[in-house]
Amino acid sequence: MERQALLINEKDNVIMAIEPISKGEIANAGSLKIEVAEDIPRGHKIAIRNLSAGEPLIKYGKTVGQISKDIQAGAHVHCHNVNDITEQLEVEAQEELLKKLKGVNAGEIKPYRTAPALSRTAIRAYRRSDGTVGVRNNVIIISIIHCANNAAQKIAQATGAPCITQEGGCLEFSDRLYHLVNSFICAGTHPNTYGVLVISQGCQQINPDMIIEPIRKSGREVYHLCLSTDGGFYSVVNQGTRIVKQMRAKAALEERVSCPVSALTLSVHTGGSDWTSMLASNPVCGVALDIHEAMGGSIVATAGRGNQIDRCGSEDTLRKMIDIGNRFRADCKIRNGQGMSKVNPTPGNKAGGLTTLEEKNCGTHQAHSHCLIRDFLELGEKPRGEGFWAIDQCHGNNDSFDCTGAAMAGTHFILFTTGLGSMVGNACAHTIKICANQQTMKAMPECADFDASVFLWGEKSLEETAVALYERVLDYAEGELTNAELIGDYSWTIPHAKSLNGDYPAAPPTCPVLE
User: Would you say the pTM of this structure is higher than 0.70?
Assistant: First the structure.
């Protein structure tokens, strides 16, 4: 019996099972037909010829690992017979690209493509007095100390407003305190924010005015209630509920006006990746972001650790990315004695067929568009123009961390690709979930805002599907609610400073990347 498989690139020495294949069955990858030597789970790799130990594992036309033991044609290629050499591959690629980009500056970057014909070039949105454009009129509640979290959450439950809480707020060292305050200010001044209610305990380390004044200067409504001076818990909850309802009522009366599509800032994140992400959701998302660049829009996304160097548009940007990657790997090694490739891909990724971090990166990067990176931003810094801007990724890269970092840059929406499913939203930058796994969408219908399986199974072309996704983004920009909003997921995870593991640096920047 023949089962469906796929040869992604003519240079590859593996094919991928599109459906489960049993030992003795034929994996049919077009003109290539391979009898499998063992049971192969869906999404996993099959050797198309005998592979010897020491050979490169090639997928997407690129080396993504190293064969660790001899493999016969038709056998399962996965963690048990492949070494992850991601760090080595990154260093080799850096050396080559440094030569290519020597003397190239960011001013030479042009959009990757031209814009297709779209249903509109303008959207109906809210113009803010600070010059920004919002696609939502959110009223948010911010607890600036863990002691006030419960009161803030009670007000959120009574009003349906997004609520930002945190586990600290006292005994914070200066670096962490800066990022804590900066995170609150970014939320309060976000383009999608209409008004803010700040809740404090009264004895916390943070002076509420550090947050309130920047928010007020941005033109947003902002109120402050303190548990120790405004009557205690029940009084603050009652007053806060009334204030939030009043602000939401006023926000509902504001009218949208015509704004150019280029006023939107978009971001991208991949979470719960599987084989459908790599083959469909990510490429579709990437082309949609290419379209946004062509429309004159801004894109921000976390990047770094040296694994997207071919996206750097100048020598300066490349050197920054290399420095970020070197610092990150050194920090991981000093703190944990091992590199990121030892803990990533995740167990769920591996179950879905991903074997090495480089393989995961190659698939993930398709979601980040073909746009060249213009420069790096610090956490909370806004893009300085159109095109693609990268955020230093080392603040942490799980779903909620990453989405919060994007939101702090003023992102309106995060295009969030997922194969295994995710419910993660954000208090300010709402997530638009893109999925091509029909089983996941059936099991968790709330995890998908856009069905990319039409491209996976050949019903529509990549261009057609990407244009349809971009049009849906514009629908959401004009007020249609995403699933994360409908279920009320308003996550906001306060980023660390520079390191995934804590404040930077544990290791000096001169630490060698490799032994």
Answer: yes
Q: Of the candidates 128, 424, 415, 89, which has an alpha carbon nearest to the alpha carbon of residue 281?
A: 415
Q: Is 404 within 8 Å of 190 (Cβ atoms)? A: no
Residue 283 DSSP label: H
Amino acid at 186: C
What pLDDT, in 10s, does the model give residues 29-47?
988 999 999 999 999 999 9
The structure tokens 């694994």 sit at 307
Residues 6+ apart with CB under 8 A from 198: 142, 144, 184, 188, 208, 211, 212, 222, 223, 224, 225
Q: List the alpha helices (DSSP H) in 171-310.
A: 174-188, 209-217, 233-253, 275-276, 282-294
Q: Which of 347, 311, 265, 287 is nearest to 97 (CA)?
A: 311
Q: Residues 409-463: pLDDT tens digits?
A: 999 999 999 999 999 999 999 999 999 999 999 999 999 999 999 999 889 999 9
**What does DSSP assign to residue 458?**
T
Query: Can you tell me the distance from the alpha carbon of 471 to that of 8, in angstroms, rounded to the nearest whole number?
Result: 28
AA letter at 272: G
- Amino acid, res. 509: P
Which range, 97-101, 351-355, 369-373, has the best average confidence (pLDDT)? Answer: 369-373
Counting DSSP H helices and E strands in the chain, the numbers are 15, 23
**Tokens (6 digits) for 25:** 């069955």
Tell how strand 221-226 and strand 265-270 pair up: unpaired
Q: The dihedral of CA 461, 464, 470, 473: what is its sign?
A: negative
Angle between helices 462-477 and 282-294 (to 10 degrees): 70
CA angle 368, 60, 40 (to 5 degrees): 115
Q: Which residue has the tokens 């850096």?
A: 94
In whole angstroms, give the CA distance from residue 320 to residue 326.
10
Where do the H-state alpha helices sit in 102-232? 149-159, 174-188, 209-217
Q: How far is CA 358 from the centre of its chain?
A: 17
Specify the pLDDT at position 414: 98
DSSP 21: B
